[in-house]
Amino acid sequence: MSVPLYQAKAELFRTLGHPVRIRVLELLQDGPKPVRDLLAVIEVEASNLSQQLAVLRRAGMVTSHRDGPLVVYALSTPDVADLLAAGRRILGAVLTDRDALLDELRAGAATAPAPAPAEGDRDRAGRGR
Fold first, then answer.
1. DSSP codes, 32-83
2. What is this structure's pTM?
3. Distance CA 4, CA 14 (A)
4. Would you state the pLDDT for residue 111?
5. Is 52 exposed, middle or buried (CB count within 10 Å of its CB: 0-12, 13-18, 19+)?
6. φ/ψ (deg, to 5) at 74
7. How far is CA 124 from CA 3, 31, 80, 117, 120, in A?
8. Using CB atoms within 10 A of its CB, is residue 84 exposed (0-12), middle (13-18) or buried (19+)?
9. For residues 21 and 18, what is the distance between their CA atoms, to the nearest angstrom?
């Protein structure tokens, strides 16, 4: 029995749900890299990086091969880089919308009259007694 497409997509996005995995994929966009080069850039323990690379490999997002003593990783398809680029565009649009909303809220606060103090607040401030 095959997995429904929506479930397979959910698994793909869960795979992307770790910052180290995203960073690895970003670094591999420039071409294949040995593990030692990834370790030099990503500040994690070697065992943690190894675990994250294994997750990416099982998901089919990266491939690996031996080059003498080195294990070299690469993106399995250029579509992975396209997916990362789409993620950046979506994030940029979402953050832009949030910035616009925040600007609107700030502009509204500057032009809106200050709310009148509640009845109890006037009594504590010494007014209205």
1. -EEHHHHHHHS-S-HHHHHHHHHHHHHTTSEEEEEETTEEEEEES-HHHHHH
2. 0.74
3. 15
4. 65
5. buried
6. -145, 155
7. 65, 68, 62, 11, 6
8. middle
9. 5
Mean pLDDT of 7-35: 96
* Cβ within 8 Å of residue 21, ≥6 positions away: 15, 52, 55, 56
Contact status, residue 63 vs residue 4, Cβ threshold 8 Å: no
* Tokens 């490999």, located at residue: 57
- Using one digit for the tens of pLDDT, what is the confidence trace for 43-93? 999 999 999 999 999 999 999 999 999 999 999 999 999 999 999 998 888
Assess contact for 88 and 95: CB atoms under 8 A.
Answer: no
Maximal C-alpha separation, the chain: 87
Local confidence band at 129 (pLDDT 50, 70, 90 cut-offs): very low
Q: Dig out the tokens for 32 from the structure.
A: 């294949």
